Amino acid sequence: MIYQPISGKGCTHCHQWKAFSDFYWRKDRNTWMSLCKQCTNQMSVQSIKSHPENHLESARRSHAKHKQERNEKSRIYGKTHREQISIREKGYAEKKRKYRQLHSEDLKERSRRWSQNNPNAVKAKKQRYRARKRSLPATLTTSEIRYCRTYWDNCCAICGRSAGFWNSVALDHWIPVTRGGGTTIGNIIPLCHGVNGCNNSKHNHDPISWLVRKFGQRKANAILKRVNEYFDHVKTLPPDQSNDQ
């Protein structure tokens, strides 16, 4: 009797005889799975749709468990496949460029709408960018901007003027960026901007010298005391007061 090797097996779900190549290999049991690839994939999709929260939690656990191993594989792959990665990245860049050319107007409109709906986030982003360019602290968040404006009642921290037809209330670095002031809640205050605005005249001058020159020594001392009280106050806020960068 001549032994004929088995070329396949039957799926326990669809009950069809299929080649071994149509089954997944189980490393933990060193054998083929009892369900074919097609049935396995279909059941997996159905399970994800029925219980998405379970699969998300499973994915998080797997990600945390194999994070170090995955990072090591990624590092090795990056060293051994530099050319393939470069070609792939160039392809992605070309696709992005073509997409931007074909949808330039739509992208501009979406960006404009987002900027209008998120003015505080836009300002925080610009302030952080300026500070990063000078390697200065840049931790100001959107929540901190709201807190700052609320503390000063959306008015100028120096003269108390609110936004009007000829002026607005802008955020300003108390110690200018050009003088080493970072973009943090402990260095940002609202100043009126416009005709005879405090923000316009302060520019990048030393704040104390500017106060004395604009208001005189006596009034400058009173204003400086009020500003320092605010900066001392924000230092006592918990770190999680603002967590949305």
Can you walk me through this structure?
The protein has 245 residues and is of the alpha+beta class. It has three domains: 58 residues, no CATH class; 32 residues; 119 residues, no CATH class. 55% of the residues lie in helices and 12% in strands. The protein is built from ten helices and six strands, in the order E-E-E-E-H-H-H-H-H-H-H-E-E-H-H-H. The strands form three sheets. Strands 1-2 form a two-stranded antiparallel sheet. Strands 3-4 form a two-stranded antiparallel sheet. A two-stranded antiparallel ribbon has the order 5-6. Strand 1 and strand 2 form a beta hairpin. Helix 1 packs across helix 2 and helix 9 packs antiparallel against helix 10. The longest helix is centred in the middle third of the chain and has 21 residues. It is elongated and about 100 Å long. The N and C termini lie far apart (75 Å). 15% of the residues are buried.
Spell out the blueprint of helices and strands.
Elements lengths: L7 E3 L6 E3 L3 E4 L4 E6 H14 L1 H14 L1 H14 L1 H21 L1 H14 L1 H15 L8 H10 L15 E7 L14 E7 L3 H5 L4 H9 L1 H19 L10
Antiparallel strand pairs: 1-2, 3-4, 5-6
Helix pairs in contact: 1-2, 9-10
